[in-house]
Amino acid sequence: MADFAKDKSYGVVDPHNVQELTNHLQAMLQGMTDNFGHTSDRITGRIDEMGRRIDELERSVADLMTQAGVEDFRS
């Protein structure tokens, strides 16, 4: 990896040339893209799990309504 000098006041990398800046920005953007992808996957997984749990809850309620003798309770 490129040799970066550190800005002592902020701890921000200071590239020495355009190529180092380009490489740093590309790496930073790739990291952000990866992080967004992981977060998106986690959210999608949670939504899918929530959907499965709602389906299970609906089946349980339907079973209870059937056991209670309630006919077509869905509108």
TrEMBL record:
One GO molecular-function entry: transcription corepressor activity
InterPro entries: HS1-bd
Tree of life domain: Eukaryota
GO biological process: cellular heat acclimation
One Pfam entry name: HSBP1
GO cellular component, one term: nucleus
Family: Belongs to the HSBP1 family.
Protein name: Heat shock factor binding protein 1
Lineage of origin: Eukaryota, Metazoa, Spiralia, Lophotrochozoa, Platyhelminthes
